[in-house]
Amino acid sequence: MKIDDGKNLSLDQLLLFQAILKERSVTGAAEALGLNQPTVSQSLRRLRGILGDELFIRSGRGVEPTSRALELVEPVERILTILAREVLARSDFSPRDSDRHFVINTTDLGEITFVPSILRRFRAESQRITLEAKCLKPQDLMNAMRLGDVDLALGYFPELTAHSVYSQSLADHPFVCLARKGHPLIRDGLSVEEFRCAEHVGLIGEGHAQRRMEDRINSAGIDRKVAFRSQNYASIPFIVRDSDLIATVPKMLAFCFAEFLEIEVFKPPIPIEPIHLKQYWTERQHKDPGQIWLRRIVAEIFLNNDPAANFKVGNGSDEKP
């Protein structure tokens, strides 16, 4: 690949750029690429000369990208994606013969909701394909998807707004309130006043749909008494069962835990818009045959099919709130 001054930009240098960006370490990039340190250092010097920028500067134990390097992330990713998808990749995908390892990004509640059904479909079509779930911070998720470390984000991730992100809406999912049976403040359903007087569980994990619920309660002028904050969904039903705390959570959490934990489920006493569950992917994954297969499986299982849709809640309604 010729540059204006006659210098050559190689595929190896682009792969090195991507590896250093991912590892935040020249030594780590060398190990990831199976190269020795002198070769990597020499290639990086040439790349700096071609692009006229340091690209990476020392920071603590590793390196950080310069502003110019950050500008290059998307175009470099686009070049490598085209090469991988249109030049080097096979044009077909056979689940039966594949041993691919797929990585999805979802919350702990997302693992409970999505993963069992996906794994059943995997084993119906393949004995060797495997799955891994991660829950990355919003600022790390986009970069992980661009670099190919995450194949699919599944759930509610409104931060994924870059023009290179694709998405498919699956279902709208409501919130409910959880309380232990025999809660001393709750008489017949859950009123606004009872909601206001109770102590609450709050969720503080980054990227959670809980942020929408928190914003809606604040806009309604309700000053909740948050006695406990957690980064995880899965512990909340147990905390509610053994305390007088109330939790406002996605309905799926109630569907999974309410019956065997003997906790009560109520429609929130104030309107809270549902969250929009989607699957998200980037240009890197868009035409990959294996990723298309993965997205098809997710859509076939969950498109317009909320597993908790028919779960009954209190406040005199048998319908989803």
From TrEMBL:
KW Transcription regulation (keyword) present: yes
Gene3D superfamilies the record matches: Periplasmic binding protein-like II (3.40.190.10), Winged helix-like DNA-binding domain superfamily/Winged helix DNA-binding domain (1.10.10.10)
The organism's place on the tree of life at top rank: Bacteria
Entry protein name: LysR family transcriptional regulator
CDD domains in alphabetical order: PBP2_DntR_NahR_LinR_like
Keyword Disulfide bond among UniProt keywords: no
Family per record: Belongs to the LysR transcriptional regulatory family.
Keyword terms, alphabetized: Activator, DNA-binding, Nodulation, Transcription, Transcription regulation
Residues of the HTH lysR-type domain: 9-66
Cross-referenced Pfam families: HTH_1, LysR_substrate
